[in-house]
Design a protein that fits this description.
This protein has 196 residues and is an all-beta fold. Helix content is 2%, strand content 45%.
């Protein structure tokens, strides 16, 4: 059993809090089906005292999630009786709001642990590695890598712009009508004002 965790998005809000979205990917690398799949994430270990964590959303197309998950006492993201067949994968999305952190608390590291039980009663577990692939970076089908998932509350304003020629129409008088399309996207983690 392997698990990977990645920070999909960190959005810094005007009230000083941040919305953080994590994606967890689990995969059964073994040769037997696994039952009693668990996914444990103690958010208090990542966001220490003075920070207040609240769950905004917890979803999965592959597992039944635990509607009581708080990450601050009830730490299993999955409901009871989830399974993961041989070679199968599943994903979970978690969005939390983190508020009231001290001014010097801007960098955090978070990990999760997945567990399951074989038909013969053998328990297996894995500590998450940062990224989307439970196998990590060596592609050996052995989820033996572990690394924390970084979260930063430092402002990172990034604006992207693209321009394309939609249409050029040559006119009989020798002039041309040219239509351009501009696409702007905020790639950063803060809202941008005074866009020009």
């Amino acid at each position: 059993l392997g698990v990977a965790k990645r920070n999909v998005k960190t959005e810094l809000l005007s009230n000083g809090s941040a919305n953080v979205t994590f994606e967890f990917n689990l995969e059964n690398f073994g040769n037997v089906d696994l039952d009693n799949i668990s996914l444990i994430d103690n958010l208090l270990l990542a966001f220490p005292a003075s920070c207040a964590v609240s769950v905004l959303g917890l979803t999965s197309d592959d597992f039944i999630v635990n509607p009581s998950f708080t990450g601050t006492g009830v730490n299993n993201l999955l409901a009871a009786n989830n399974d993961l067949p041989v070679g199968d994968k599943g994903a979970v999305l978690l969005t939390v709001n983190v508020a009231n952190c001290a001014a010097n608390q801007t960098s955090f590291v978070n990990t999760a642990t997945a567990g399951g039980t074989s038909p013969g009663g053998v328990s297996v577990s894995d500590e998450s590695n940062n990224g989307a692939d439970p196998d990590g970076t060596d592609n050996d089908n052995n989820p033996d890598e572990t690394s924390g998932t970084p979260v930063s509350f430092q402002q990172n304003p990034v604006l992207g712009v693209a321009k394309r020629n939609v249409k050029t129409e040559l006119l009989p008088n020798g002039s041309a009508n040219v239509t351009f399309e501009f696409n702007l996207e905020n790639f950063g983690n803060v809202d941008l004002g005074n866009i020009s």
